[in-house]
From TrEMBL:
Biological process (GO), any one: L-asparagine catabolic process via L-aspartate
Source organism (scientific name): Phasianus colchicus
Pfam families: Asparaginase_2 (PF01112)
Family (UniProt): Belongs to the Ntn-hydrolase family.
Gene Ontology MF terms: asparaginase activity; beta-aspartyl-peptidase activity
Annotated Gene Ontology cellular component terms: cytoplasm
UniProt-listed Gene3D superfamilies: (Glycosyl)asparaginase (3.60.20.30)
Keywords on record: Autocatalytic cleavage, Hydrolase, Protease
Protein name: Isoaspartyl peptidase/L-asparaginase
Site features described as Cleavage, chain residue numbers: 165-166
Enzyme Commission number(s) of this protein: 3.4.19.5, 3.5.1.1
Active-site residue numbers: 166 (nucleophile)
Amino acid sequence: MRPVIVVHGGAGRIFKEREEGCRAGVVRAALQGYGVLKQGGSALDAVEEAVRSMEDDPHFNAGCGSVLNEEGEVEMDAIIMDGKNLASGAVSAVKRIANPIKLARLVMEKTKHMLLTDHGARLFAQAMGVPEIPGEKLITERSRERWKKNLEPDSNPVEFQKDLGTVGAVAVDSEGNVACATSTGGLSNKLVGRVGDTACIGSGGYADNSSGATSTTGHGESIMKVVLARLILYHMEQGMSPEMAADTALEYMKTRVGGLGGVIVVSSSGEWAARFSTKQMSWATVKDDELHYGIYTGERHTKSVDEALASESEGF
Ligand SMILES: NC(=O)C[C@H](N)C(=O)O
């Protein structure tokens, strides 16, 4: 099996001045994940590595760069899933850790449970030796500005829902195993304790070797209503291609509950798709040593991995 990785840096609105940073961030994450796969690493290791790279990148709404809740704090959700045995781990409403995706993986591997939240997740992180960092370290100037703007009396609540930007990855490895990972700061100015789609199995992501893997982004409450990730794999089980399944499920979410979003999909046979109903979604994929990436509908750049790695070391 030839390995494939697909990543996204969130569906929604990407302001012009952030476009290049987002393109560079998804490309870097895809190359890093692909590097893991090429060395014989598992799909699970590859998606974790790709998501960790974007959590560390302040351009994205995950890890450092997360949006703030109504009290001006970062509260993050993350999920990881192994398509081999349907094992999954998730955390929700976690604060003061750099990489929620690593904690989600620990939940999967070190507990009998699938989802730990808030205080319990914090105790678990401490028990696992995951370092606590000052909350301030996750906050960027941009997320603070956004938060303040949303508190203004004339702010438009619909507008700030468009500023999404979750990160995610799906992969198939050389043994034919698939995996997904998704991580987010959620929605700007959300209520304290709000748990979004990202932490919920079948909504924020799903992976099953018998069909494929998917990671979602967009309006969380809409994604949860249609259980978007599982819906896409259901369509694939019924014979649709990843692209057709993604478009059908996104269209259903739009018409049924008025929600917009984006998804990345890989099938167990290595077919992939990156589709969105929002105006933009940053995405990148590597298959057969060829990198593809884009942000706008119809935008697709192609480079060889060698060329991409060379421009990466020159600073993109
Ligand atoms: N940026 C996003 O994709 C938001 C995420 N789906 C949430 O609602 O928490």
